[in-house]
Each structure stands twice: as structure tokens, then as C-alpha cells.
Write a structure and sequence with these properties.
Low-confidence stretches: none
Shape: globular
CATH superfamily: Formyl transferase, N-terminal domain
Helix content: 25-40%
Order of helices and strands: HEHEHEHEHEEHEE
Radius of gyration: 17 Å
Mean pLDDT: 95
Structural class: alpha/beta
Largest sheet: 4 strands, mixed
Length: about 190
Amino acid sequence: MESILKSIKRKKIPINPAVVISNNHNAKGLKIAKKLGINTVVIESKNFKGSRWQYDKKVIESLRKHGVTPRNGIVCLAGFMRIISPGFIKKYKNRIINIHPALLPAFPGLDAQKQALDHGVKYSGCTVHFVDVGMDTGPIIIQAVVKIKENDSIESLSKRILKKEHKIYPEAVNLFARKKIRVSRRRTIIS
């Protein structure tokens, strides 16, 4: 999130960040957003009594209040560790993007770096993708490869992948903002 917001502030991405929404009032991203002059909203999920869709309706309401609509907005997930309801995804179809610390479709879900090391793969990396109703199954926008070293730990691999994430996530947002991405079935076409 910080990489994206700083790229926007440096005029590398032609959009206006409207709001940072968190489900945790202690999230580091809230402090970063405030420091950069971005509106913040906390919609706690810990003791939320309703359904996932009822929670997501509160998020959608906050997005709309800040001008992020299904016609003109983009929703960037960064550290938002909740599964989004199908209703939210349908409303913002191909306007919600996420980053995952693996070369999808390999190693979706949690602990992707551990999965890569446990499987003995020689390369891992990260993927920016559109969010669909599956777990890390949406159309892929950009990927970056990281070679796995003999002595890699989860921490060392995660650190190298994170450096790539900070590069490709703003790149994907920039492509989206400049209307350079088109989705055809499951594929993204970048012009």
C-alpha cells in the first residue's frame, strides 16, 4: 500500500487515492495513509455480528462515500486478510486487485512462501491479479520471479519477494489507471 501511495504522490500513477479502509484499527497502513494525507476508515470485523456480505456492504458504502464507485474506482487489497463476498466482487468486477506472494496459480492461500520451500521449487515470486470469487484465482495482471536459494528460510524468501511486490503492485495500478488492461475470459491483455 505504501509503495502505491508514494508512487501516486510522485505523480507516477495518474489517480487520486480516495480512502484507505482497514478492518483493524491498529493496522500500520492507517498511520502511513494519514501521514500521506489520505482519508482513513476503520470498519472493525473482529466482533462483527452479521454475514460477510453485510460487512462488505459497509465497506462498499464507505467506498461510495469517498467516490470510489464500480464505474470509476479501483480497490487495491494490501494486507486485507478477509475473504470478500461474491456480492462485493460482482459489484466491482475487474476493479478489485490483490497481490499474492507466489507465482499463481501455484501456492494460493496462506503461507505461500512456506509452501514453495516445502515443495522444493526453484523459483517463486509474486502475482498481482484481479479478485474473483475463488481463492487467488482471478486473472493475472503481472508476475515477478524470485530465484530460491539453497539456504533460503521463509523469512529470507519473503523479504526478497516483498521487494518485488513493492515494484509490481504500483506498476499494475498504473496500467489500470492508464486503461492499459483488458480482461478477456481469464486472461489480461496489456496494451
